[in-house]
Automatic annotation (TrEMBL), chains A, B:
InterPro entries: ArsR-like_HTH (IPR011991), WH-like_DNA-bd_sf (IPR036388), WH_DNA-bd_dom (IPR027395), WH_DNA-bd_sf (IPR036390). This is Transcriptional regulator. It comes from the Bacteria. Gene3D superfamilies: Winged helix-like DNA-binding domain superfamily/Winged helix DNA-binding domain. CDD domains: HTH_ARSR. Residues 19-97 form the Winged helix DNA-binding domain. PANTHER family: BSL7504 PROTEIN. Signal peptide: none annotated.
Amino acid sequence: MSATPRWQDLDRLIHEPARLMIVTLLYAVEEADFLYLLHETGLTKGNLSTHLSKLEEAGYVRITKTFRGKIPRTLVALTPEGRQAFETYRQRLSHLIHPPIQGDP
Amino acid sequence: MSATPRWQDLDRLIHEPARLMIVTLLYAVEEADFLYLLHETGLTKGNLSTHLSKLEEAGYVRITKTFRGKIPRTLVALTPEGRQAFETYRQRLSHLIHPPIQGDP
DNA sequence: ACAAACAAGTCTGTATTGCAAACTGGTATG
DNA sequence: CATACCAGTTTGCAATACAGACTTGTTTGT
């Protein structure tokens, strides 16, 4: 028992490919609307909506609903915490992914 | 619809943290026995066993059962396919993880 | 005026699957 | 003889990702 479960500490919320995709996009562009994410990720509306809600619950993104005229527009942005979480995730993954190489031709 | 789901192509089998852990270990040491993996990963026996079976089904690892005296010993090694899959996975993840752009103070 | 399509969801149902714990079977040890 | 180790298989549960249907309001096409 116990061991060193530093691996398990991978943030499951970000780890999920769909959300990893979303977070990565947000990290790059800093702000995006629903449709942009929808097209860029190729997810379905419902799916994207759900994932965004989860990220919002976790405090990783902030969702702002505005109106462009009468048309609703949903803006999504990473919060500082989300940004931080992504960086931590990224670091941890790096450790996993290219570990100090061992004797291996 | 359609879009470009190059992200989705992340190999789910390897992506799962527990298995990512296993594969990474195997990639490093090239050969490991059950107990080593058990202690190193901190998984339960059943869990480890299940994950190994899945990796075996996918052809990513080869499991060799030997006997050390009368005590069973289970050796696990990455197959070339597994090795290939891990490298592909790693590459794809790299693309995701440190993206080219970054205009962001 | 009416139909269709868009924007941004919510809700539901299904199917996977990860995980822990219990059980199995054989061996060594006290 | 009972306990503990090795290496599993099976079971049961809980979470969840995903697609698709349904909703509400708005704009556009004819």
